[in-house]
Amino acid sequence: MSETREETSVVFALSRRADLDALRAMLGSEVRVLGEATSYREASVLIARHQPEVALISSQLPDGDALSWLEQESPLGRTKLILMAPDPKPEDYRTAMRLGALDLLSLPLNPGMVLESLRRVAKGPGERQGRIITVFATKGGVGKTTIAANVAAELAGRRQRVCVVDLDLEFGSLCAFFGALPEQTMADLVRRRGAFSLPLIQEMMVTDPILGVPILASPLTPDLAPTVDGEGKKEAGRNYVAEVLRMLRLGYDTVVVDTASRFSEATVAALEMANTVLLVTAPDVPALQSTAKGLTVLVDKLGFQPDRLKLVLNRANAAIGLTAQDISRFLDYPISYRLPSDGDSAVRACNTGVPIVRRRRSGPLARALAALAQEVGGPPARLVARRSVLRPLGSRR
Ligand SMILES: Nc1ncnc2c1ncn2[C@@H]1O[C@H](COP(=O)(O)OP(=O)(O)OP(=O)(O)O)[C@@H](O)[C@H]1O
Ligand SMILES: [Mg+2]
After folding, report:
1. What is the three-state SS of 3-24?
2. The pTM is what?
3. Ordered domains of the chain (ranges, CATH)
4. Do the Cβ atoms of 270 and 130 come closer than 8 Å?
5. Closest ligand 1 atom to the C-alpha of 148?
6. What distance in angstroms lies between residue 319's CA and the mean position of ligand 1's atoms?
């Protein structure tokens, strides 16, 4: 918007016609209303059609909630988002920002605040954020890197702008899954002075030779890991990983993060910033026991719920004497995805540096991984009616 008070184009969505009329009456001549919706489905169509500068959208509409809409559909493109929710709580603000909203207004609306917010958001830089998918497990060797690499490869094949980050800082092997040889890594990045710009981070990335997925590699030797996360940090007060992820999500549709199996500061940052966490487990007792311990931290301490923390049972058909139902009951948590065991595809893929979803798309493991990627990396949309304001509450199931 220029200083000469150009009009700001908006699309808005509220449940009731009467509320839409009231909102329209609040907006002065500096706002051009391109469309009004009473459902997310309609809002998506209007945004795609008119590409307004700003979308003012209610956190709940008759066909679902903003969380599902934004996580599953990526409807916004370059449109900036202001959410509206009745009596928002501090955690709703955090959720709104994580979803890429630039403001969260309290319903019923106050006309002065609506105009102030619209002016500020329209004038400000476009800070639409991509999504972060963090792949985590409490036990090593259960398939985190396999899943991270294949989710990224699948989304890149669907023309998303995707990058991957290897947060297994000591022994990361993500590059090998893409057949890429890094020259620079996160250790080189954190040696630089000052804030990390997106171009600087991109300079440190290596590109996957097939689909061109940029990879931010873990340090080349384990002794450098603490310079990124731990005692060896040049500036102890900085959370380098959080800074990197914050920048990357401005530059990509999806940032896929592979992790090591421990709750380090870096991992916790990647978990807390994630739109979706894939918690990987395997159908054996040691893996399940450690997953149960991990869930206590993730659910009870970090506040994750099944809308954001998805349990992935890898090698699901190798469940010797344990059904998926037994496992879900033991963990008191729903299993969102099951991936079949296929050692031939999995090991061949990491040995050749060609992700499974690119090698043999017809195999059952490739198909399961592709379906998982499409679901967590949206679209297509799958709107589900939920209960609460922004982050649905309720039991773990
Ligand atoms: N569904 C599967 N079926 C068969 N083998 C698999 C499957 N998923 C992964 N594997 C194999 O298991 C091994 C470990 O996988 P991966 O490296 O992805 O696990 P990880 O959790 O990242 O391990 P780490 O904790 O060491 O980083 C690899 O050899 C991989 O090919
Ligand atoms: Mg790994």
Report:
1. CCCCCEEEEEECCCHHHHHHHH
2. 0.71
3. 8-123 (3.40.50.2300), 131-377 (3.40.50.300)
4. no
5. 18
6. 16
The ligand 1 site (C-beta within 6 Å) comprises 137, 140-146, 168, 261, 314-315, 339, 341-343, 346-347, 350, 365
> DSSP string of 210-277?
TT--EEEPPPSSGGGHHHHSSTT-SSTT--HHHHHHHHHHHH-SEEEEEE-SS--HHHHHHHHT-SEE
Determine phi and psi for 387, rounding to 5 degrees.
-95, -45
pLDDT in tens, 141-194: 999 999 999 999 999 998 889 999 999 999 999 999 999 999 999 999 999 988
Residue nearest to atom 15 of ligand 1 (CA): 143
Alpha helices, H only, the chain: 17-26, 40-50, 66-73, 90-98, 111-123, 144-157, 174-177, 186-189, 198-203, 225-228, 240-251, 265-272, 285-295, 324-331, 343-352, 356-359, 364-377
- Cα 260 to middle of ligand 2, angstroms: 7
Ligand 1 atom nearest to CA at 346: 31
Residue burial 271-291, b: 16+ Cβ < 10 Å; e: rest: bbbbbbbbbbbbbeeebbebb
Residue whose entry in the numeric block shows the structure tokens 């090593």: 140
Nearest ligand, CA 280:
1
